[in-house]
């Protein structure tokens, strides 16, 4: 069994936190930057641009929560935000769900640079947040 000092665990948690924050920061930027582009994709009640703004705001909240209150539950929240964002981009890239309920048809079967950057950032942030959650003591930090 490998023994890690308290200082070593602190360094690991700090590095994982930095990776999560950076990944979610990319998520925030991309979603807010692209939101106006997708305002025209809408149902009767909701636009894809509005959903992009919500995703950006929730990702920003996860960043702030993880910085201000670095606990296992904020790591879990950051994981859910990052993994949910990645799941959404992959689903709407590869599956045409059509419009349902208040959600517009967001199928977009192409990759472009900002979409790719966002997907990678969300994936890396999700893995780091999962590591932060799993490998942290309950009294983390």
Structural commentary:
It is a single chain. The protein starts with 5 loop residues before the first helix and ends in a 7-residue tail after the last helix. The protein is built from 4 helices and no strands. The chain is mostly helical. Helix 1 (6-34) runs antiparallel to helix 2, helix 1 packs antiparallel against helix 4 (113-134) and helix 3 (72-94) packs antiparallel against helix 4 (113-134). 67% of the residues lie in helices and 0% in strands. The protein has helices spanning 6-34, 48-68, 72-94, 113-134.
Task: Quickly describe the structure.
This protein has four helices and no strands.
Keywords:
mainly alpha, elongated, single chain, 141 residues
Uncertain runs are none
Shape descriptor reads: elongated
Number of strand elements: 0
Broad structural category: mainly alpha
pLDDT averaged residue by residue: 91
Order of helices and strands: HHHH
Give the biggest sheet: none
Strand content: under 5%
- Whole-number radius of gyration? 17 Å
> Helicity level, as a percent range?
55-70%
Measured between the Cα atoms of the first and last residue, the distance is: 22 Å
Total of DSSP H or I helical runs spanning 4+ residues: 4
């Amino acid at each position: 069994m490998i023994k890690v000092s308290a200082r070593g665990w602190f360094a690991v948690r700090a590095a994982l936190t930095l990776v999560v924050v950076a990944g979610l920061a990319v998520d925030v930027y991309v979603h807010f930057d692209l939101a106006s582009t997708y305002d025209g994709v809408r149902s009767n009640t909701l636009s894809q641009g509005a959903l992009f703004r919500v995703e950006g705001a929730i990702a920003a909240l996860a960043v702030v929560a993880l910085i201000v209150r670095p606990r296992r539950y904020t790591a879990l929240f950051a994981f859910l935000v990052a993994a949910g964002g990645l799941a959404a981009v992959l689903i709407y890239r590869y599956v045409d769900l059509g419009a349902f309920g208040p959600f517009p048809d967001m199928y977009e079967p192409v990759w472009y640079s900002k979409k790719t950057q966002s997907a990678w950032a969300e994936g890396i942030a999700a893995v780091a947040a999962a590591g932060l959650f799993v490998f942290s003591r309950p009294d983390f930090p």
